[in-house]
Amino acid sequence: MDAAITQRIDALRAAIRHHDHCYYVLDAPEIADADYDRLFDELTALEAAHPELVSPESPTQRVGGAPQASFAEVRHSQPMLSLEKCTTRTELEDWFARCRRELDGAPIALACEPKIDGVAVTLRYEDGRLRLAATRGDGTTGEDITANVRTLRSVPLVLEGADVPALLEVRGEIYMPLAEFESFNARARAAGQKTLVNPRNGAAGSLRQLDSRITAARPLTLFCYAVGECSPGWVPETQTEVLQALGKLGFRVNPEAACFESLDDCERWLEALLARRQSLGYAIDGAVLKVDRRDQQARLGAVTRKPRWAMAFKYAAEEATTRLIAVEFQVGRTGAVTPVARLEPVFVGGVTVSNATLHNMDEIARLDLCVGDTVLVRRAGDVIPQIMAVMPGARAPSAEPVSAPAACPSCGSPIVRPEGEVVARCSAGPARCPAQRREGLRHFSSRLALDIDGLGDRIIEQLVARDWVREPADLYRLTAERLATLDRLGDRSAANLVAAIAASRETTLPRFIYALGIREVGEATAQALALHFGSLDALLSADPAALETVPDVGPVVAAEVHAYCSDSERRAAIADLLAVGVRWPDPVRREGEGPLSGEIWVLTGALETLTRDAARDRLRQLGATVTDSVSKKTTRVVAGPGAGSKLAKAEALGIPVLDEAALLELLERFDPDHVGA
Ligand code: IVH
Question: Minimal CA–CA distance to 111: which of 274, 226, 279, 275?
Fold first, then answer.
């Protein structure tokens, strides 16, 4: 055999392994996707030409061949334990006090980790090679899911580093990231297919596939948090060091993990974690506190498969069942008619929920929803509560199917649903449909649009009902005297509102474009359109072909923008806005034109002098790109109080971090007119 070929194959495997580790474990890629693909294609071609050189550890061999007939049973070499749970501070303090007593009052350090809501697995490595992956099962016996787990590119097939034990069993949790869960469901919904009930079911269902090619197509990853059976003497002295050692071997470990000397500090960490629950990117159902030192763990021992040295602190559940009382139909800004579920109030995700979105009529059909059904409701963070499923077996004989309305509940115009579209719409425009007008005003005044403080739903409702405001420009003609006659609005608030409306006149072009509420044009698209065209006139006269040259604008968005800009009623409304003095004094700088061009900034934590939106606008004005997540490409991070994983990641990657004072100084230096705006 040609030694050069063997060498090239080895080099390619090592390079791909390295880049998989950067991308899937560290979330910090070093090369472009296309360059990675080239390496992978070269290896695939070499292995095809030399099949005798293929090895099971090659990165090309993650997806198995023929589907299996069933999963074999696996007896765990060491049981997979479960955890004692608590939900209150008192219970947590009781547990800790007991640990202290049992350890004769010795100081106890506690390792704190998010409790991932996924599927527990064990991974067995012999001589550094993945030999077995199994589910927890009943803790003693699980199922062999090796073929499926091999498809997860964050699971190393070969261990790296200087200290690879001959035998190592690693325990962790496989999960589906929230963004992937949402986009999977959005696609399934659009295709009229079954959706995943929650991310954990998504992970479990994906791992239960007999055909590993299906698992390979599912976006799963894992965090590792413990060691099972392993070579004598390998396991480090503390849980904190276990996580570090696992990281060195190439496993993905949770960057949120922290160790504290006092329970007070742990409780602060628990609170801070709960506050960031939604921005972690994965579902957690609480956190796990573990006595850090292994000798202390051993002294505390376990009772009935639950270690006494660990405690799960559970947060409020994000799912609950309740009854569907009715389905009502709401008309949105663009006339889209959306069914909304009225629910028997239920406590879920930390609040009482009595409404849930149903997206569209297809969703009702897909869920097979009847009024009176018992339904599973999910509310994660600020996301609008959703009905995920009808609870099987609980349908009352009186349950009634939901039917679609024929006329707009707001203006009575016919509802139309163009062939091939999922969205049904009121056929009247905003000029003739009060609901559309109201929603349009809400959007126009919202935080990311013209940001009119104090213009709440109740006021908008009245402004539309009294026909004082037909188009956004009418807002600027309202007087304090007139506003003071509205329900629940005193003289003082009326004066403040007029001032807030007046102040909103001065805005930016991206905000103005966003505020128009053009279908398909969200904040990012508005920004792209403003940057590309540089002026409103240029945008208004662009044809669809010109629109399609804007980054991320495809034929659908281009057609919507063009239709909007060609509509004489909309153009008149825009002209009226300019006539009442709405303006954007700053020229829109194209990327590459400002003093911060080429820089990629991330804002995290709280700011005091500036709002985060204002800071972002100013940075963009200076030519910087402002993004949400820290990566190797990030050039600067602004961190305020409460900053968490983004700050930690920036520090780990050696990215310069500024506080608010430094940001203000920098803004002042480049842009003296605007500080404090
Ligand atoms: S430790 C020593 N750590 O929670 C006890 N478990 O209710 C072994 N889980 O079966 C578990 N995140 O599926 C541990 N950071 C974490 C965890 C975690 C999620 C799950 C795991 C376990 C269950 C116990």
Answer: 226
